[in-house]
Each structure stands twice: as C-alpha cells, then as structure tokens.
Design goal:
Blueprint: E1 6-11, H1 15-24, E2 38-42, E3 47-52, H2 54-58, E4 75-79, H3 83-95, E5 99-100, E6 105-106, E7 110-116, E8 122-128, H4 130-134
Amino acid sequence: MYQQMIFVNLATSDLAAAKKFFTELGYEINAQFSDDTTASIPLSDTIVVMFHTPEKYAQFTKKQIVDSTQSSEVLLALSAESREKVDELVEKAVAAGGRISGETQDHGFMYGRAFDDLDGHTWEVVWMDPAAVQG
C-alpha cells in the first residue's frame, strides 16, 4: 500500500553543523541523497528533513529565504511515545547546542516542549495520551 511521505526542506547557514546537531539527536544522514549542498535526514519511514545551503535552497523558490533566527517560517511538530521521550529529545537538542523555545505545555492528556535548532527552526515535541485520541 502506498504511504504518502513528507519532505521538509529547510535552509541552513551551516550544513555541517546541522548534520552534527541532528546526528546528536539520534538521527542518521542518508548519504544517497546528501552531498556538499544538502543533507537528507529521515525522521521516520514517511518524514524526511532536507537541509540545504542557502544557494541550493534558492534553486527551489523565487521567494526571499527568511532568517529563521529572526522570523518564523514554520513550526514543526514531532510526536513522541511518552512524556519521557519528549524530555529526552529536547534535552539532547539543548546538549547539542539548541535552545529551549517557549514554555512546557502540560494539559494532562497532552504534554509538549519545543526547541530551536542551530538555525532557529522551531521543533515542537508532543506526547498525547492514546486514550484521549480514541475518544
């Protein structure tokens, strides 16, 4: 059965640093789709982040590339299997040079935290009680 995928394309000011940051979070670089202008980082079977140098990213758009340390272009949210996994990923991000973004959100049935990566892209990490989702 066909599974639709999402490829999140982001500009990075330092490709080597972006690669190092995400490998420190536990992800791997897909060398087949990476080169000196792009890093392909699968987050799951259906989600792949593509980090591009600004020059490479500009080949895909005629729009101005935002400075993600100053402006928000997108909020990215990743699910986690538990509250502990939320904390674990955010703590890894901070240890790798990222910054906490916003306040911890704890609504009982849903728990989330967020971090900014080295380029200022905001990544939310969220756990939701499966019982709350089902009804």
